[in-house]
User: Fold this.
Amino acid sequence: MVASTHDDKSAEFSPDGTRIVFVSLRTGSQEIWTAGADGTNVRRITTLNGPGVGSPRWSPDGQFVAIDGNIDGPRDIYIVRADGGEIRRVTASDSIDIRPSWSQDGQWIYFWSIRSRKGALWKIPVGGGDAIQVTEEGGNRSYETADGSLYYHKDVAGKGEVWRLAAGATTPEQVLPSVDQKMWTTFERGICFVQDIYQKTQRLSFYDFATETITPFAELPEGWHIEGSPGLSVSADGQQIVLTVMVERGGDVMLVEDFH
Assistant:
């Protein structure tokens, strides 16, 4: 477990399952951090001291992390090395570009944007360039899978759903109804998500890509509230799950000396 007296959220496993990346306020401003999967070797990889950043996502080779942030104005997509260093801007438009994700070959970054009249998914080359619209509407969180399918979340009639756009297809199809945008993720064999999001007892469930069946496998303890965007991540082999959970709320009292 990675813990501090300030918010730690939006954790994601590295592709090899040995590390996690997450957002933390432990230094007083939002920064991107990494740690071992066991919570050791915590390391800060951004030093922005002010601008808000979030939605960290590992590149397929584990060498880089894509993030969103209002570093140079409206919220855009950026890339930073997983061991820290210079932050490189990828998108630069007057709109809001958020929630990045990587293509399986590491050549493209998907993101949600309001460049069109309705918020939709777009993609842009990692090196920058012209962005291409991917969906007509929706897509506030996305994951590309090994077969080239793009799984994404969108709101339909006030409720969240997970949809799939198969490789080469132009018409998406619904996969899961009633899923919160921060309570699901894909991994090698399927989708892990929180079922019964509108019920008192919520269950972690598994959607199998091969059989298209849903299997509940664990209940969340009463009083747990999944935080962050995303709020859960599964290691590629499906053996570990990391959750961002609010277990208590509190505050720190700080003394400022020589204040004028």
Notes: Residues 250-260 have pLDDT under 50 and may be disordered. The chain is about 0% helix and 45% strand. The radius of gyration is 18 Å.
